[in-house]
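Issue 218. Parser rejects a valid record. Input:
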Amino acid sequence: MNHREEYPSEYLAGILSEAKTIAMVGASPDPTKFSYGVLRVLHEQGYTMLPVNPKQAGNEIRGLKVYESLAAIDQPVDMVQVFRASEALPGIAREAVGIGAKILWGQIGVYSDEAAEIAEEAGLRVVMDRCPKIELFRPFWKPKLGQSI
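Output the parser choked on:
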């Protein structure tokens, strides 16, 4: 899949409807940061959110336990969402494969062909340079929110 092109609506909708547990790498406790807002909205929409931030490990963000790493998470993870520099994405892709995640999602501005290749070769679905919070509110997702199309 070419991750520089627009994703089919069905692909994104399928991921967002199937994922239940999301590990957010780079989650911030700062309410002014974009990662905090995305974590808040996804959590409010019913996703089980697992913040990952080594500097905040052992603390809480929005009442959610913060993990030091993906490997430290003690439950299955459907999706790994990444709020880190693109250079970190290949290593995170390897960690996502290592924990058995099903999806690797790079936030807006987070893109790596190498990471996509690592994840896809292991059977993960990949989204790059997109925001799940934004995608949730696209027209194809309105039925999830109880709105008419």
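Fixed in the parser; the record now loads. The domain at 9-143 is CATH 3.40.50.720 (Rossmann fold).
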